[in-house]
Amino acid sequence: MFWILRWILSPFWMLFYDRAESARQATLLWTLAAALERKFPVVPLLEALADEAGGSWRWKVRGLADLISAGVSIPGAIEASGGILRPDAVALIRVGAESGGLLGALREAAELARRRTEAPAFKFQGAMIYLCLVMTVLASVATFIMIFIIPKYKVIFEGFETKLPAATEALIFLCDGAGALLPLLVPPMIVALWVLLALSLDLIGLGPAWDHRLRLGSRFWPHSRAPHVLRCLGIAVDAATPISTVLNTIVSEHPDPLLRWRLAGVASGVEAGEDCWQSLRAAGFLRWSEAGLLTAAERAGNLGWALRCVADGIERRLEYRYRLLLELVQPVVVAAAGAVVAGFCVSLFLPLISVLDKLS
Q1: How far apart are the C-alpha atoms of 49 and 51, rounded to whole Å?
Q2: Which of 42, 143, 169, 341 sits between 20 and 30 A of 116, alpha carbons compared?
Q3: Given its phi and psi angles, is residue 138 left (phi above 0), alpha (psi -120 to 50 degrees) or beta?
Q4: What is the mean pLDDT of residues 279-293?
Q5: What is the C-alpha to C-alpha distance for residues 274 and 285, in angstroms, rounded to an integer?
Q6: From CA 204, how far away is CA 206, in angstroms rounded?
Q7: Shortest CA distance to 149 belongs to which of 168, 170, 162, 177?
Q8: Rounded Cα–Cα distance for residues 219 and 197 (Å)
Q9: Top-confidence residue, 68 or 337
Q10: Which domains does the chain have, with CATH numbers?
Q11: Residue 344 contacts residue 171 (beta carbons within 8 Å)
Q12: What's the gap between Cα 263 and its chain centre?
């Protein structure tokens, strides 16, 4: 039940916390990668990083340093420090450690954390805030007009013994009806919009950075989870580890149960001698063109590079569609707001014209 509450609060997380959290995670991962590459002591670097940090992040990094100082391996310490990295990053590092490519896994996870700070979902949050502000201002102006302006119009027109223009009467009718239904309609609309926003963030993998063990995208859209699987396989290929071993590692240790369930059949098929890429395509992770590309890359001997390229391509297409949606939604919102404002202005200006015509 608690994870449902955290899932619902994910838009707040994205807006106020996630970008800074992703930047801190990228710094931590680059620090670990540099220490391993140059064979520097890890603990002093982590302690220095903790001294420069603030808030709860300082104690998370210091706790990680204490675990490594006590003899725990880097992947084990990261797993024991719950919430210090995203579950996909933790799984990527675990696969890298077991396949002998820990340094490559740390670099890959650091690059993904850096990209997360530039995710288009932040722009989506801004668009949603803009929409909410516009609707709030329009509702406030409409309320002021209906309470203070329209009654005076009625008194004036009653004094002239004439009717209000049809557009003004229609506006009064709509506002009176909306005023009666507003308490019943607005809360469900706000809840539905918020749930839709949280669901969209979860489906594209941009939910909160805590230990989220049930990603809906694994059930409804397995292709969105393909980049993570392909990057795990790319690290294993670079370390000359059998693909079946990596798949079994993901199936046994990944925190997402739906992803484990989908990959279990793929791992069994690969162990039985089936083609890995066609098995992934049958499970919904790859398209036929992507599976064909990976088959050709495996024959050409550049499979590791091809796996990363396909993963990046899937993410770029997702980001492009997300940005295209934003570019389409924002003009529609502005046009709708302009139409509402224009309707109000015309409905309020017509009575003045009628009064002036009556006086003349």
Answers
A1: 5
A2: 42
A3: alpha
A4: 89
A5: 16
A6: 6
A7: 168
A8: 18
A9: 68
A10: 2-116 (1.20.81.30), 121-208+320-359 (no CATH), 217-301 (no CATH)
A11: yes
A12: 23
